[in-house]
Each structure stands twice: as C-alpha cells, then as structure tokens.
Amino acid sequence: MSSSLFDPVQAGDLQLANRIVMAPLTRNRSPNAVPKPITATYYAQRATAGLLITEATAISHQGQGYADVPGLYGTEQLDGWKRVTQAVHEAGGKIVTQLWHVGRVSHDSLQPDGRPPVAPSAIAAKTKTYLIDAQGNGSFAPTSTPRALDLEELPGIVHTFAAAARNAVETCGFDGVEIHAANGYLLDQFLKDGANQRTDDYGGSIENRARLLLECTRAVVDAVGGGKVGIRLSPVTPANDIVDSDPQPLFDHVVRQLGPLGLAYVHVIEGATGGPREVEGRPFDYEALKKAYREAGGKGAWMVNNGYTRELAEEAVKKGADLVAFGRPYIANPDLVRRLKENAPLNTPDTKTFYGGGEKGYTDYPTLS
Ligand code: 8OZ
Predict the structure, then answer these.
(1) What is the C-alpha to C-alpha distance for residues 235 and 166, in angstroms, rounded to an integer?
(2) What digits encode the pLDDT tens for the residues 295-335?
(3) Locate the NADH:flavin oxidoreductase/NADH oxidase N-terminal domain: which residues (predicted)?
(4) What is the band of 1 on the pLDDT scale with cuts at 50, 70, 90?
(5) How distant, in Å, are the alpha carbons of 5, 6, 283, 288, 340 from that of 2?
(6) Which of 181, 206, 293, 332 has the highest CB neighbour count under 10 A?
(7) Looking at the domain 9-353, which fold is it?
C-alpha cells in the first residue's frame, strides 16, 4: 500500500508523526534577534505538524539581512529559542531551526558597524530588504552593494555555521537544523554563476562553486550528526535576483556530494519561491535530482515544497516524496494537519501581517472547534 500524508515517517534521527511540514517563514517579530514568548506560542500552536522548521535564523550578525529576524549566536537569543523548543516539545511536536547567512541580501544599517554586507563577489542583488525604523514602521529598501569575501574569511563562515548548529541542538534543544542554501542567500550566491564570479577555489567550475556549501554542510554534520541535519535548495528560483546559467548539472553535483553524508532530509523548492512551480526559461528535472541523490547513497527523506495543495501533496507522496512542506497555509492554519485530514476549509492568510507586528496575524488565527 502506498503511503499517505498522514502516515509517520523517519527522517534521519527524526521520528515524525506525519509527512506534513511547516515550511520556514520569515515573520520579523524578534527585535534584537531575540525570539519573544509569543513566538513560542506561535510554534506550539502548530506542533501537530510532523515537523516544524523555524523561520530563517541568522548564524551571526553579519548573516542578518532583515529587521527583527532572530539569531542563533548570543545568550539572550539562545534563551529565547529554548522557550520555543520547550513549548513545542510540551505540545508533542518536533522542531528544527533554519541556519541562515544572507550574504549580499542585506543592508549596511543591519550589519556590524554599518559596514557593507558580504558576498562571493561585489555584485549587488537587484532586490529589497525589510527595515524597521525607530518608530516601529516597516518599509522595503534596496539591498546594499556587498564586498567580496576574502579567501581567508571562508573558514570563519564554515566555523560559524557549525557553531550555530551546536548552539541550536546542544543549548536550545532543537531536534535538528536545516541549512538554508536556497533563495539567493549566501550559499546559493556561491553556487550560482549569476552572483559568483570568483577566480579562486570557490568560483568558476561547478565543483568550486559548490565547495562552500559542502564544507559548511560537512562541518554542521560533524557538529551535530548527519541524522539531525537537513538542507534547503532552490535550483531555479529567481528569488533575490539569483540565477545560474546551467542549474541541472550544478544541483546534480551538489546532491551527489550530499548523498554519503547521512542527512535527515533534502528540502527542494520546486520553481519560484512562493510563486509559479515552473519558471520560464529555467527548466529543471526534479525527479532526476532525486535519482542522483539516491544513486549517491542518499537515504534522507525527500521533502518537496512550493504551492502544494492537499491534492498535489497526496499525489507527491504517492509518487515517492517523503515529506511536503506548506508555507503560507501554515501562517493562517495552526491546525493544518487536521484541516487537511478532514478536508476542511482553510483560513486565508492576511498578507499585511506577514512581516513585523505582534499577535495580530501571528497567534490569533482560529482552529476548528
Ligand atoms: C521572505 C521575507 C524575508 C526573508 C527566504 C528567508 O526567502 C526568506 C525570506 C522570505 O528564504
């Protein structure tokens, strides 16, 4: 018998009650990078998901690119996350945190000492970031022009990913971590030739452009164990002005290298993040990607994401996806698992309260009675 969305599944060390995942969702409600008590409530409300993935969380101040996103690097920040994992575990859920370095998708005003953000090359992304002024008013602003990282700085990036992973698991009590290598942030910038024009060992060939991602992943695996590590990839998304001239061989190489690492899961955004599942002029074969991962010995769960409905998700699981991540539906439906199971109507998310603010549009969406 084929599996259903509602059947349990093992993903590395993670024993999951069902195949429904809360996708990472940026909410900008953590001033000073500290998750507040209300954030614990928000995640605990959603704890019936097989797995919760936190909003992207900066591994360092340099890795931050938006106002009021959380961090994984200071005592107050880690204490804030402890409250979250405790609340989720008390509610019977499983939660991993998403390790994030934005690279060039940042603004001088968000960086240590107001310096420029860092990137593989000094090429600005034509995209916007989200700032909040002293009066608490949010606005979107163009990202700043980055400076290229020196070769000597790269071991520090690798070390910072591993340190954040250790903080997450050992100090905060997370069940694992997800490496954010998608959506045009630092690791995706290194991967793709639209952002990476380096001429050293980290630019040029596919092997070179994948090097930083793989070094970071191996270091995180060494820090917490592969069975607690997932990774998120977005081969063709145009998010944050990212592009690669030939993504299929690039990502086939990446997953072949990930195969032997014993990861818990590989999380793939199919198409344009939060948009169409097909991107014009950027064809991609996701089945071939999965096959390349399995052929390389990859035993992690295969997690799919982007625009999934109940029907599409059931179909994906029947065709062999192990996990399906839901983004926007999870903002508005804390009891999404039950609603999908009962085929009940879904609440509509309020886009005005996605980024910033308090309880409204965060912890006040109704559950079924
Ligand atoms: C929306 C707004 C800000 C950041 C991503 C972390 O796209 C994000 C993000 C999404 O992965």
Answers:
(1) 28
(2) 999 999 999 999 999 999 999 999 999 999 999 999 999 99
(3) 4-347
(4) low
(5) 10, 12, 29, 21, 18
(6) 181
(7) TIM Barrel (3.20.20)
What does the pLDDT look like over 19-65, one tens digit per residue?
999 999 999 999 999 999 999 999 999 999 999 999 999 999 999 99
Domain boundaries, the chain: 9-353
Contact yes or no for 81/97 (Cβ under 8 A): yes
The residue whose two tokens read 């198409």 is: 271
Cα–ligand 1 centroid distance for 184 (angstroms): 10
Considering only CA atoms, which of 222, 235, 291, 304 is closest in space to residue 263?
222
How many residues comprise the chain?
A: 369
Classify burial at 137, counting beta carbons within 10 Å of its beta carbon; exposed 0-12, middle 13-18, buried 19 or more. exposed
Q: Which string of b and e fits 217-231 if b means at least 16 CB within 10 Å? A: bbbbbebbbbbbbbb
Phi-psi region of 241 (alpha: psi -120 to 50; beta: other; left: phi over 0): left
Pocket of ligand 1 (CB under 6 A): 26, 56, 66, 183, 239, 273
What is the distance in A from the centroid of ligand 1 to the CA of 295?
31
Nearest CA to ligand 1 atom 4: 26
Residue nearest ligand 1's atom 3 by CA: 26
